[in-house]
Amino acid sequence: IIHVINMEAFKHYTDQRLSHRGRHIIFDTAKKKFADQSLYFKFSEITTAELDEQVLQCRECVLDPKIGASESNDLGNANVPGYLVRRQTRSIAAVIRKNLNRAQYYMFLEDDMRFCRDGFRAIQYLLDKATRYHGHWLAVRASYGMNGIFLPNDDLAVFASYLIAQQQRRPPDHLVVEWFAGETPEAKRHKQDRVNVGFKFNLLDHIGVVSTLRSQKSSSFPRCYEPLLQPTVFEVEAYNPLQCPRDDIWPCRTANPDSPQQLVDWAARGRSRR
């Protein structure tokens, strides 16, 4: 199921200067276009009434924790989140809570990324393999930034709470990695001995220019089915070609690894369809 959520009300709730409260033309157009395909697409909206209720229960889940902060006086930097990045973090947490218990797995995807050809087939291949190799894994990384990260449904609420609690310390695409890698005491307690998996290939193609998390224009990133390696992603989450030269996921130590004949040459598929 592809779940599309209109977050405009969230933005307007935290910034009263914005006009056309709650409407999103592209969202409305897509909702109308795919209305007869409800088996595969779900469209929903964060409403002002929902936000009113959330503020009473958890003020910092909706409103900025820094009183008086704004887009103009709190810019932040690449590693320390400013006003807009903290709002993005809270938006992600709100989307997670809106999606709870809808499917077995959740994949993060921003609106300036598109699926590579055969993307759903590659995702099924990847998740099946990660489960065969590692059982109850915590996360799977198959793209960069806040994209192509798969989390099991049962872990979503915990991660959403972590985002809210840590929103002033790091941007969300850094917080998610430290969380599933167990790099803080709180994250380590939740992770225990579960594995985070890195896929060899990038499964999403970036079509945007400026990131919502950073003001500078994007540099060169891997395209469809190109290798997804450090430093594009952090070492703790990246596929490691030295440790797994004959496999396409990391970690690759398992009692029954796939033979070379079982591997799919996703890179060749990407080249053949350009």
pLDDT below 50 for ≥5 consecutive residues: which ranges?
Answer: none
Q: Specify the structural class.
A: alpha/beta
User: What share of the residues does DSSP label as strand, in percent?
Assistant: 5-15%
Tell me the Rg in angstroms: 19 Å
Between the first and last Cα atoms, what is the distance in angstroms? 26 Å
H-E string? EHHEHHEEHEEHHHEEEH
- Helicity range: 25-40%
What characterizes the major β-sheet?
A: 5 strands, mixed
Number of helices: 9
Q: What is the strand arrangement across the widest sheet? A: 3-6-5-7-9
Tally of DSSP β-strands: 9
Mean pLDDT: 89
Described by the principal axes of the CA atoms, the overall outline is: globular
Characterize the structure shown:
The chain is of the alpha/beta class. The protein is built from nine helices and nine strands. The strands form three sheets. The protein has a five-stranded mixed beta sheet, with helices on one face. The chain has a two-stranded parallel sheet with strand order 1-2. The two termini are 26 Å apart. The model has no long low-confidence stretch (mean pLDDT 89).
Summarize the structure.
The chain has 274 residues and is an alpha/beta fold. It is 34% helix and 12% strand.
Which keywords apply here?
alpha/beta, 274 residues, five-stranded mixed beta sheet, 9 strands, 9 helices, two-stranded parallel sheet, single chain
Topology of this structure?
Layout: E1 2-6, H1 8-14, H2 25-33, E2 41-45, H3 48-57, H4 83-99, E3 105-108, E4 113-115, H5 119-134, E5 139-141, E6 149-152, H6 156-165, H7 172-180, H8 185-191, E7 196-199, E8 204-206, E9 249-250, H9 266-272
Parallel strand pairs: 1-2, 5-7
Antiparallel strand pairs: 3-6, 4-8, 5-6, 7-9
